[in-house]
Structures are given as structure tokens and as C-alpha cells.
């Protein structure tokens, strides 16, 4: 199977636009491709989000908008099962961006959540991204989309190498 681990950063509390996206493609038990881009969300930034991510209006001034970036990332995003750490959040932001820009992609997307998987596979421990990276010895620059997506992919790989069957964890997310 091919897995598309992704992470988005958002500019404000509305979580309906993206200020950065990271993608790590997993195939045959390894990460075979990484992608990262700042994204101009065409909206304002909240102080909290800027403090968390280090991304502000100046950082994205010359970045592509989501609509401009979509043609480049759609072939990647559509090439496998989407994976995110706390996937309902990232999937909802993706859905809102697609809707906001009038992008007609697909009605549903298959996805895995590494938090949900971890709660069943490793019960009784914290499943925050930083905690899981500490547990597995994965380098993490938290709230940086490229680092977070790669860490998510690494966590998925640890689960797979331990013999986890992902099939019971695959869900469908309605995008329209």
C-alpha cells in the first residue's frame, strides 16, 4: 500500500485555511518522497498560531495560495491512503480549503489516524506527536508541517514494522 502522511498548519482559530503543508509518502516500508510548502492563506493570522508555528503574513507573502498549490500536490494526495496524526483535524482543514476555493476533488478519501491506531496498539500512554516521537526516538520540530508529516510517517512505519494490520483503522472522510 501507499500512504500519504500529511500535516497542515493553520493561520488562525477558524482552521479553514492552510499556512503550510508537509507531505511524506510511504511505500514499501520506507519514506520515498517528501514535500513542503508555505501557503498564502489569503486571510489574517492569529497571534497564537504565529507563536506556535512561526509563520506570519510576511512569511507567506510570496507563497502560493492553496488553489495555486493544489495542481502540484493533488497527484500526491490522490495516490494513496491519507495519514495524519489526529487526522480528523487535518482532514477537516483540507475539506474546508477545497470548499473555500471551489476545488472539486473527490467525494470521499480513505484515511488513517496514527493517534487512533496508537491508542489501540499502545494503550495506556500519551499519544501526542511529541510524546510518540520521544517514545520512538524520532526527531521532531513540532508544529512545522514538514517535520510533523515526516514524524507521522515514521510512527506509521513503526506500527507496520511491529506487525500492525492497518485495515481495521482505515476510515472514509466525506469531502463534499
Topology overview:
Elements: E1 2-9, E2 20-27, E3 30-38, H1 47-53, H2 57-60, H3 66-77, E4 81-84, H4 87-100, E5 108-113, H5 114-121, H6 129-136, H7 145-161, E6 171-174
Helix pairs in contact: 5-7, 6-7
Radius of gyration: 15 Å
> Given this structure, which CATH class is correct?
Alpha Beta
Named CATH topology: Nucleotidyltransferase, domain 5
Separate helix tally: 7
Number of distinct beta strands:
6
User: How many separate domains make up the residues?
Assistant: 1
Structural class: alpha/beta
Describe the structure.
The chain is α/β, with parallel strands linked by helices. The protein has one domain (2-174): Ribonuclease H-like superfamily/Ribonuclease H (Nucleotidyltransferase, domain 5). Helices cover 40% and strands 22% of the residues. The chain contains seven helices and six strands, in the order E-E-E-H-H-H-E-H-E-H-H-H-E. It has helices at 47-53, 57-60, 66-77, 87-100, 114-121, 129-136, 145-161, and strands spanning 2-9, 20-27, 30-38, 81-84, 108-113, 171-174. A six-stranded mixed β-sheet has the order 3-2-1-4-5-6. Strand 4 (81-84), helix 4 and strand 5 form a beta-alpha-beta unit. Helix 5 (114-121) runs parallel beside helix 7 (145-161) and helix 6 packs across helix 7. The radius of gyration is 15 Å and the shape is globular. 34% of the residues are buried.
Amino acid at each position: 500500500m501507499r500512504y500519504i502522511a500529511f500535516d497542515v498548519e493553520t493561520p488562525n482559530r477558524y482552521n479553514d485555511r492552510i499556512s503550510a503543508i508537509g507531505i511524506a509518502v510511504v511505500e514499501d516500508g520506507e519514506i520515498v518522497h517528501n514535500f513542503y510548502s508555505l501557503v498564502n492563506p489569503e486571510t489574517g493570522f492569529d497571534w497564537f498560531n504565529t507563536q506556535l508555528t512561526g509563520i506570519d503574513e510576511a512569511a507567506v507573502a510570496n507563497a502560493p495560495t492553496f488553489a495555486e498549490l493544489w495542481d502540484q500536490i493533488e497527484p500526491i494526495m490522490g495516490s494513496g491512503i491519507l495519514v495524519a496524526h489526529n487526522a480528523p483535524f487535518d482532514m477537516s482543514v483540507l475539506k474546508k480549503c477545497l470548499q473555500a476555493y471551489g476545488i472539486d476533488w473527490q467525494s470521499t478519501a480513505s484515511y488513517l489516524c496514527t493517534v487512533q491506531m496508537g491508542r489501540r496498539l499502545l494503550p495506556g500512554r500519551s499519544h501526542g506527536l511529541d510524546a510518540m516521537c520521544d517514545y520512538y526516538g524520532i526527531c521532531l520540530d513540532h508544529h512545522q508541517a514538514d517535520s510533523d508529516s515526516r514524524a507521522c510517517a515514521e510512527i506509521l512505519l513503526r506500527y507496520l514494522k511491529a506487525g500492525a494490520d492497518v485495515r481495521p483503522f482505515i476510515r472514509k472522510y466525506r469531502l463534499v
